[in-house]
Design brief:
Elements (H helix, E strand, L loop, with lengths): L5 H6 L26 E12 L2 E10 L6 E4 L3 E8 L7 E4 L23 E7 L4 E7 L9 E7 L9 E10 L4 H9 L22 H10 L12 E4 L9 E3 L5 E8 L6 E4 L5 E6 L2 E8 L1 E4 L4 E7 L6 E8 L5 E7 L22 H5 L13 E10 L4 E4 L10 E2 L5 E8 L5 E5 L4 E6 L2 E2 L4 E2 L1 E4 L4 E7 L4 E7 L2 H5 L3 E6 L2
Parallel strand pairs: 1-4, 3-8, 9-12, 11-19, 20-23, 22-31
Antiparallel strand pairs: 1-2, 4-6, 5-7, 7-8, 9-10, 12-17, 13-16, 13-18, 14-15, 14-17, 18-19, 20-21, 23-29, 24-28, 24-30, 25-26, 25-27, 25-29, 30-31
The structure holds CU-O-CU linkage and copper (II) ion (CU).
CU-O-CU linkage binds next to strand 5 and strand 30.
């Protein structure tokens, strides 16, 4: 990797045009920073995966912190430096920035070139467990980190946060993984979304969607990974978080995997789901919670009065593989947990989603527009569509500013898709036609042949990405935009 000097970064200030932030940088040791911008650097690092050295990426502050912990009411005030030897761009998943600072290549920011920096500054409006990640194939190489926005109203709570980002790891490059799926060897220019689309001109998406519905078998996982990670580690050498007897822990769990959905298993401890995608829900008790790619869940656990060590696992859907971490008191005896369970887990479903109720539901308002969204595609062709179209010929979902908009998302394919809308949080208001005041979130799981209706208020004008958070589905077409002018 090419090292980039502070001086080069200073020289790059002028390149920070689009975000147009007010901060200035003086990063030299011993010189106070003129503004309070937090520097986050996209860089390479080496981790150990099952005894083998793996070069991955990271988003690291100057003091070594991965990602960012901030507080609602403050500004998101970040300088993103690209210390990789390739262009990149980072999306702030869960935040609702003004259009222009969202970090999706060409929507509208161009990729950040090696050795350059962008400044971001906007008020933090969405509290909770969020994350940051490359909106390119580099997400597969762990260019991702937690982004926690604390709620000042919760400052008095006596609970210990444990933040964990899950990932699916391969020693192959994402380009190789993609080529393995599509059967092509085409190169991915610049890794950007604009280079990610396939030529769909010889395929009628609608017809294909209909044909797909006839298929009788469901597809679950489409990539075999080398390992599943929880904060960079496998269960052979897991993170051990030291906790206190009778203490309360708030797990802030992030599914940062690119193509793997998990069941979170709290084992012998009962947990309470208290937030999804950062938004509080009426607590739901349980020991198993679904977590699709891009989604987050906060689980509160009250620990027993005795010493102990408790694994919290992420079980790969449709498979026996798993990852996880350990909560342990000082004297708690730890048992080894295998990276493979003894049976394959079932696919994610909507049972939890259907039982979630928003703590702060959206105000009652009639929908000004209701847009059908049909998800299509299949494994064989490995071309995925929204309303019959891929990204290269996508038709924007046009809405009007100020409207309450509903998206009735129907999955006509035989694979589950986590659908994510940028720039907004939405409320789940219906499942298969049953209306209810469900969770507020930004990414919702669509099992095969099911329909989920979400509502949002069009109060943040722009051209916002709306896509499947399976990286390779997005890269092969399952992406469009929701668009409205100021
Ligand atoms: Cu988590 Cu379009 O992103
Ligand atoms: Cu998908």
């Amino acid at each position: 990797m090419q090292q980039i000097s502070r001086r080069q970064f200073l020289a790059s200030t002028a390149a920070a045009g689009v975000a147009g932030a007010a901060s200035s940088l003086t990063g030299f040791p011993g010189i106070a920073r003129a503004a309070t911008a937090t520097i986050i650097r996209a860089e390479s690092r080496v981790i150990d995966v099952a005894g083998r050295a793996a070069t991955v990426f990271g988003l690291v502050q100057q003091d070594g912190t991965h990602g960012l912990v901030s507080q609602a009411g403050e500004d998101f005030n970040v300088r993103l430096e690209n210390a990789l030897d390739a262009p990149t761009l980072i999306h702030w998943h869960g935040l609702t920035p003004p259009f222009g600072q969202d970090g999706v290549p060409d929507l509208p920011q161009p990729l950040l070139q090696s050795g350059q920096a962008y400044d971001y500054r906007f008020p933090l409006e969405t509290t909770g467990t969020h994350w940051m990640h490359a909106h390119t194939l580099q997400e597969q190489q762990l260019l991702a980190a937690p982004l926690i926005v604390n709620d000042p109203a919760e400052a008095g709570l006596d609970e210990q946060p444990v933040v964990v980002l899950f990932h699916d790891f391969s020693f192959k490059t994402p380009e190789e993984l993609l080529a393995g799926l599509t059967g092509s060897t085409g190169s991915m220019a610049g890794h950007s979304m604009s280079g990610m689309s396939h030529d769909m001109s010889n395929m009628n998406g609608m017809e294909q969607g209909a044909a797909t519905q006839m298929a009788s078998t469901m597809d679950i996982n489409d990539i075999e990974y080398d390992a599943y990670l929880a904060n960079d580690r496998t269960l052979d050498d897991p993170q051990v978080s030291s906790v206190e007897k009778s203490g309360t822990v708030r797990l802030r769990l992030i599914n940062g995997a690119t193509a793997t959905a998990f069941w979170i298993d709290t084992g012998s401890l009962e947990g309470e789901a208290i937030a999804v995608d950062g938004n509080l829900v009426v607590p739901v008790r349980g020991r198993r919670f679904p977590l699709g790619m891009g989604q987050r869940i906060d689980i509160r656990i009250r620990l027993p009065r005795e010493e102990g060590a408790w694994p919290v696992l992420a079980l790969r859907e449709g498979s026996a593989e798993r990852t996880g971490f350990i909560l342990a008191t000082k004297g708690g005896a730890m048992k080894r947990v295998s990276s493979k369970g003894d049976k394959a887990e079932g696919p994610l479903d909507l049972a939890l989603e259907a039982s979630l109720l928003a703590t702060k539901p959206f105000a009652e308002k009639a929908a000004g527009a209701s847009e059908p969204v049909v998800l299509g595609g299949d494994m064989a062709k490995y071309a995925w569509t929204i309303n019959g179209r891929g990204w290269s010929d996508h038709r924007p979902i046009a809405v009007n500013k100020g409207d309450r908009v509903e998206l009735a998302i129907r999955n006509g394919s035989m694979m589950g898709h986590p659908m994510h809308l940028h720039g907004h949080h939405f409320q789940v208001v219906g499942i298969d036609g049953r209306r209810f005041s469900g969770a507020v979130r930004d990414t919702v799981w669509l099992p095969p042949q099911r329909e989920v209706t979400v509502a949002f208020d069009a109060t943040n004008p722009g051209t916002w990405a709306f896509h499947c958070h399976h990286l390779y589905h997005m890269a092969t077409g399952m992406m469009t935009v929701v668009q409205y002018a100021a």
